[in-house]
Amino acid sequence: MFGGAGPGLDRPGPVSPGSEAPPGPDLAHTLNRRSLLTGPMRLIGRDEPFGLLRDVIKQGGLVLVTGESGIGKTALLDAVLAQARQDGALVAAGSCWSSSGETWPRLLRTLPGVPGIAELGSLASSLADIARQQPLVIALDDLDHADSETLDVFGFLARHTRFERVTLLGACADPGPDSPLLSARGRVVPLSGLGLEHVRELMAQVTGEEPDAQQAAAVHRRSGGNPFFVEELTRLWHTTGSTTATTPAVRQTVCSWLARLPEPVVRVLSAASVLGREFHCDVLSPLTGDPVPRIRRRLDAALGLLVCDVDGRYSFAHGVVRDTLYEDLAEDEACRLHAAAVDAYERIPGRAGGRFPSEVAHHAYFAGAALERTRVLKYLLAASRDPGRRLAPEERIRHYRRALELVDDPHTRVKVTLDLVHELQLTGATGQAWPMFHQAAALARDLDDPELLARAALTLYRGPGGDGVMLAEAHTRLFGETSGQSAAMDLAGRIAEQIAGLARSKGDDEALGFGLSARHDVIWGLGTAAERERLAGELAAVARRTADAEMEQYAADLRWVALLELGDPTYVDHMNRFVALAESSHGPRASAVAIADRSIVAALTGRFDEAEALLDQLRTQPHPAFMAHHLRWALLLQQGRFDELTQFHETVAQDYPFPRLIEAITAVQSGDCSVATRYLADRPELPRMLMPLWLRLQAQVAVAANDPELRRQARAELRPYEGLWLVSLYGGDISGPVALWLATLDAAEGDWDAAVSGFREAQRCADVLGAVPWSLEARTGLAEALLATKDLDAGLALLDEVEREATRIGMRHLLDRVSRIRAAQRKPDAEFRNTGEVWELSLGGLTIHMPDAKGLRDLHTLLSAAGEQVPAQRLLGVGPLPGSDEVLDETAKASYARRLAELDAVIERATELGEEDQAVAADREREALLDQLRAATGFAGRTRRLGDEAERARKTVTARIRDTLRKLDARHPELARHLRESVVTGASCAYQPKQQLRWRL
């Protein structure tokens, strides 16, 4: 709850009101008493020691509650004593702040009939007698300040009443191994700082408001979980908004702790405060001039204020202790120690070579005049451009800002400012980036430096506010010619290539790295993988030449994506290289990307459980939410988990920038073509990074909708990328080899030879990469194509193979598809199908052909809906299924309206594109729908009633079915007999055979 005494301890007890503890030097204790008097507060984070003390009281014995000032010893005792009174115990409590010799007399006066301490034997006997009547609890707080007589009495009573129901509770700091308090064999209950969740709970109790995670973490870090510190810092934060300031009460308590330590120990701690909250002895030693063994001995003397881990790394238990020590350093001494820290990091083996650029840059900056300005700038820029072992984006930005304070050279200032702008854009701080960008651009123009202006133009283009105006200006300055009407992307590509070329000629690796990465980003898209792989390879060489770990990570990440798009199996080596570099750097952003990349490749190779576990891990990483959502969607889709995808789409829309795109792909893959068709008709504008996904969707819809024109368009747009893989979102989405989608289009056209060849190529592409799911997709298509070409044995064997593998890795939708393909291959018992000119009818080995007739169409409809009641009105073509007394209900009207709107959109688009055949077909369907609506409506568009229409339909349909069956009697008696026995006519008609037949319709 909080450190300090409760109401039962700052007064001797309920039977001696008015006695008070005199003021003492421990401000934490005093203030916590005062804060308690403002109102009751709930005990937080002390359930375990509370329960232990309550159990001890039931039996009797000695318990010492220990811990630093403010840790909550008094609050715990107060809560325990209050509970003891409720449980029926007799309680006497006091504090050792009183003058010498007064503690026990004042406390014993609260127990009538008990002798004084002159006769300790009689006193012990009297207490034992009381305890036989009811449990007795005697509590003494602040035993640290007790005189020897008080401690002797406490120890005597503990030894001589331990077999009675007498409980002695004491509270003190660490008593130490030689303390007389331990001679009575009592139990010690040490209190430590509260955990983060309990700190957050206490903050909410103090302020009445729930703090956010960042605020709670800051208070926990600075307080070390000490409840008194938590309360003080929380009130300060609540009133001022500061999580870095310290209250006078906290500072005074810390100073009282430090005052108890020897001066050499404080001197070492002061030097350690310069290194931060955590430090190593081998770095601290050069700051003090002491050898490491002596440093360790002195730090061990302050272990109450420090924590040492198994690796020998020390940390301040309370951030406020480190802050107090650092604030008390004189300015010149602080600068000297920071400069010494820089030298220490540079000299100590294993720490040089830029392993800790952020720490070195921090100390260099605060060394001030103790280090040369150029040296400080070098360290700051190194930290800004290095991934760092703990370097977060905000740290990079901080180092860039500090570097700008020291830059004198205007050319360097432009470059550093543009780097900072790029970093701000990556974190989404565009509002801060824009003013800085304009300053850098203006300075580049003043310097009349075409290369700097080109850098500024590329930085703007790669950011969210890019346009072609500045690119055209930079292009003219670089090449001495106007850009004409070239697209911004082309201008950016030429400028980046020129920067890289100039950098190669000058041997300027920094500029070369910028040019290569800029050109890669500018040209990214389908068909550029070969050049991107070359750029990434050269970028990796520059990184190794300059020992730039971040650039090497970046290059490896770019390279594996380009190689995968090319279908090159060596992509795995470069992906593993990137993951190794990212994990060794411990940079949060690189680690998150590494987790995402591993999940992508696990899903690509069919290791779905591993991919899902990695995505769960990604939730805790600093990764863009929309990318994590996309990976989750792709994984669910690849497994055919459509029930989960429905819920996914309902919850993810607000965090995903292109929800309709993935909704359309999900819909068409699950068998619903309408959603995807409407999305395609809208022709949304998508960035280049999503175009491969668009091509995939277009091919899927073209096949599902059986749209010849859309198939032609999809084929034309896919054909230039034959041999590649569809990779979107810079590697975040892999939609299979292009060969798969081309083969799917061939199959939809009925070009089975081309489909067989295409699916085999798609399988080869997938098998080369070990992409099991995409290999199974290709093999399923191949099996269907083989069956269509009557290669039944090969097709069915392949289906068996697909079924086994799909079951093993969990691709539900493929199992459903295999079932449908098998069902379609079973030999029918009978045929009733229109071949285009005549009807082919077969049963019992006899096949006949008959000319088209309405009765045959009626029978075909009933056979297609075996077991269902089909209204005669529908067979007559005057309306949908009746749901009321009207020919058209509201659902039917809405369905007609939706389809008419879709047809209008198709006609308009086809007309704009000059596609007359498609426009004519859509217009023909539109007129047919309008004819049906006219038949179902009466005067002024009112819906017709069913009575008249239903009776007319019944008579007409019954007559033409009977007429057809009479004709069949002569041509195919067995078929006529079966249909006459199985077909029911009337207002509703149905095909209800006694024995089911498999029809080929």
Automatic annotation (TrEMBL):
AAA+ ATPase domain ranges (all copies): 59-194
Region (Disordered): 1-28
Transmembrane intervals: none
Alphabetically ordered keywords of this record: ATP-binding, Nucleotide-binding
Record-level GO cellular component terms: cytoplasm
Coiled coil: none
InterPro entries, per database record: AAA+_ATPase, AAA_16, P-loop_NTPase, TPR-like_helical_dom_sf
Gene3D superfamilies linked: P-loop containing nucleotide triphosphate hydrolases, Tetratricopeptide repeat domain
Gene Ontology MF terms in the entry: adenylate cyclase activity; ATP binding
UniProt name for this protein: AAA ATPase domain-containing protein
Source organism of the structure: Kibdelosporangium aridum
